[in-house]
């Protein structure tokens, strides 16, 4: 639930608490401006971050459990060795983040967020939801994306390499290009445009799609 904007003095007090205290539970942090700030070994339980300006911030060895980031700007933020359990990012800017350094087996979800130029490498992201996000030119390398859901996500220019895509749902994704020689596909759901592009890359022409029609060609005269 959204809160009213926090007055500057109250926001400043919260910022000081973030710097000097280590554990936070059931807290709401609204309208904080901490660009470039480093926070180390903080623990957050069931906390909500709203409309925060956290560009290029560094959350080193922090622990987040059942937390929500809503309408925050975390462009190029760093989460080195951060533990993420049940963390949701909603309507937030997460551009240019390298998620590869988070603690193993993160439990995260992304909804309506900007993931342009993000990198996900060497992680288990089973059942992760990427819903209605913008993930153009993002890198997805060496991931387990079993049962992940990319509903409504824009993936133009993104790269998938070395990924396990068992039952991954791309059916309503946009701009997806997959190379089956570089990923493990099984029961992977893809949109028609992706299937056609793959067939064409293998030298096939899909009848009834695009310029092709199902009309039989006239036989050549001998």
Automatic annotation (TrEMBL):
Pfam families: Pentapeptide (PF00805), Pentapeptide_4 (PF13599)
Descriptive protein name: Pentapeptide repeat-containing protein
């Amino acid at each position: 639930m959204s809160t009213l904007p926090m007055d500057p003095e109250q926001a400043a007090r919260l910022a000081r608490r973030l710097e000097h205290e280590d554990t936070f539970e059931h807290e709401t942090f609204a309208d904080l401006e901490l660009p470039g700030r480093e926070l180390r070994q903080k623990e957050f339980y069931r906390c909500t971050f709203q409309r925060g300006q956290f560009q290029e911030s560094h959350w080193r060895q922090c622990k987040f459990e059942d937390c929500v980031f809503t309408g925050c700007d975390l462009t190029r933020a760093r989460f080195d060795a951060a533990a993420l359990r049940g963390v949701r990012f909603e309507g937030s800017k997460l551009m240019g983040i390298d998620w590869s350094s988070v603690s193993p087996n993160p439990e995260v979800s992304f909804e309506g967020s900007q993931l342009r130029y993000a990198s996900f490498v060497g992680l288990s992201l089973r059942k992760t939801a990427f819903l209605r996000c913008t993930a153009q030119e993002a890198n997805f390398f060496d991931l387990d994306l079993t049962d992940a859901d990319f509903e409504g996500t824009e993936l133009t220019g993104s790269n998938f390499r070395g990924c396990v895509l068992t039952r991954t749902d791309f059916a309503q994704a946009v701009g997806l290009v997959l190379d089956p020689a570089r990923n493990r596909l099984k029961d992977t759901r893809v949109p028609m445009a992706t299937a056609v592009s793959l067939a064409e890359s293998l030298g096939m022409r899909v009848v009834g799609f695009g310029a092709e029609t199902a009309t039989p060609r006239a036989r050549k005269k001998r």
